[in-house]
Design a protein that fits this description.
This protein is an alpha/beta fold. It has eleven helices and seven strands. It is globular and about 50 Å long.
């Protein structure tokens, strides 16, 4: 019997302490790319281009990039415990990310969490570099590539109560669809301003403590 709760979590700067894409780009990008961060924040470049353009000069293999991630990136405190807590209680847990599949997988695999469901941007390594493949799209959300709201809608459509965890602007739309938000950084301020139901995320033990107060309905 499955719980009727789904915990959906952003990856970079949320499940992962670091922005893992930036760790890769700082080490392997052949050209300056950080000016794109400012353009993204100013709204002068669409999110999809912001995600793709910095990786155009990266030519390392999937294996080399995964190894770098496993050597340098870290899951946030309590994430492993939360994952096992959810699994033991049949609570759906999934990573919902604009990040690339290989680096999400790398960090989860290092923690023996390869079984966690993920909805990342898929990647294909070619002679011309990394190609981005968007499998979770939604009409009207083309600028973002993958649409986090489309993933949230999947769970809502089967009657799940969605708890969303995130940190940034790309998490605001899915957070508005959630029953409860665990927020940090910019998303925390947006939730306060918009009056969304939220809890501040310091580490993932906060999520476990909240889940322990719930009376889980079985389907």
């Amino acid at each position: 019997m499955a719980s009727n709760i789904a915990v959906l979590c952003d990856f970079d700067d949320t499940a992962a302490v670091e922005n893992v894409a930036h760790l890769i780009l700082d080490r392997f990008a052949r050209e300056e790319w950080r000016h794109l961060v400012a353009q993204f924040r100013e709204g002068t470049i669409i999110p999809k281009d912001y995600f793709e353009q910095p990786f155009k000069s990266v030519r390392e293999s999937r294996e080399a990039l995964k190894a770098h991630v496993q050597q340098t990136a870290h899951l946030r405190d309590g994430f492993v415990e939360m994952a096992h807590y959810c699994r033991s209680r049949d609570i759906d847990l999934a990573i919902v990310s604009h990040g690339l599949d290989f680096y999400v997988e790398a960090l989860l695999e290092r923690a023996d969490l390869g079984w966690v469901t993920t909805y990342p941007v898929n990647s294909q390594f070619t002679d011309k570099g990394i190609q981005f493949i968007y499998n979770y799209t939604k009409p009207g959300c083309d600028d973002w590539g993958n649409c986090k709201c489309a993933v949230v809608d999947r769970y809502l459509s089967v009657g799940k109560r969605v708890f969303y965890i995130g940190d940034g602007a790309s998490d605001f739309c899915p957070a508005r669809k959630a029953e409860l938000v665990f927020a940090r950084s910019h998303l925390l301020e947006m939730c306060k301003k918009d009056g969304l139901p939220y809890r501040e995320l310091r580490d993932f033990r906060d999520v476990v403590r909240e889940l322990e107060t719930m009376s889980f309905t079985k389907e």
